[in-house]
Amino acid sequence: MIFLKIYFRTCSKILLNHTNESYKNMAIKQRDGSYAVVLDAAITTPQELKKIAEVLEKYGVSLIKFSESQRMVIVGVDPEKVEEMCNEMGVKLANAVGRVVRSIKFCPGNTLCVMGLQNTIEMAQKLKKFDGMELPGKLKIAIAGCSNSCTEPAVRDIGLMGTKDGYTIFVGGSAGRKPRIGYVLAEKVSPEDAEKLVEKIIEFYKANAKNGQRLGDFIDSIGFEEFKKAVL
Ligand code: SF4
């Protein structure tokens, strides 16, 4: 039970601690002219879900979709009411579009999963500081607790895969129009060093990539060995 309590306390913090104040990257126009907005809800509690559902019902939202990146897409929102609605729910919006850190997807790791080798929830909390950061291209991060890779870290711009000796770090992967497996940048990285390495990757990419260049394309443009030298 104690693990569940810690787990759900962590969930609440992740759900409630977004810091993005602008809506510019957060609303997606729908075919009927209404908007969809995105809330992070990879993990939550029944109490939080109940509260969210009550508020959405009050604002006439009729459809919720859970996205590939583990987020809750609220469809049919009146843009005029978004702020008021989010305040009532006690949540802030996540970034849905734009050249920003878009999503930080994580599995339950060793907090709940019997296969888990690393604390992915704690790692996700640490990496949340990058959420919404403006970059030359969109950037997705995935964290998995073991090599089963349920969150697919090898095909994300930055991927962390848990092993018994720490994390394997992938860079430059993608699952979109040009699918590609990321390069293995480092192995057996401690959680502390993994956090620092992610920061270094993001800083180097931000400072040196061309506008519109995804991380994988940027790495190819300078060569993986050069990239490695710069960030390791
Ligand atoms: S990646 Fe591993 S630890 Fe994470 S949910 Fe899948 S099996 Fe469990």
From TrEMBL:
The keyword Protease does not apply. InterPro entries: NasD-like, NiRdtase/SiRdtase_haem-b_fer, Nit/Sulf_reduc_fer-like_dom_sf, NO2/SO3_Rdtase_4Fe4S_dom, NO2/SO3_Rdtase_4Fe4S_sf, NO2/SO3_Rdtase_FeS/sirohaem_BS, Sulphite_reductase_assimil. The keyword Transmembrane helix does not apply. It is an enzyme of class 1 (oxidoreductase). Keywords: 4Fe-4S, Heme, Iron, Iron-sulfur, Metal-binding, Oxidoreductase. Residues 99-231 form the Nitrite/sulphite reductase 4Fe-4S domain. Its EC number is 1.7.1.4. GO terms for molecular function: 4 iron, 4 sulfur cluster binding; heme binding; metal ion binding; nitrite reductase [NAD(P)H] activity. Residues 29-88 form the Nitrite/Sulfite reductase ferredoxin-like domain. PANTHER family: NITRITE REDUCTASE (NADH) LARGE SUBUNIT. This is Nitrite reductase (NAD(P)H). It comes from Archaeoglobus veneficus (strain DSM 11195 / SNP6). The lineage of its organism: Archaea, Methanobacteriati, Methanobacteriota, Archaeoglobi, Archaeoglobales.
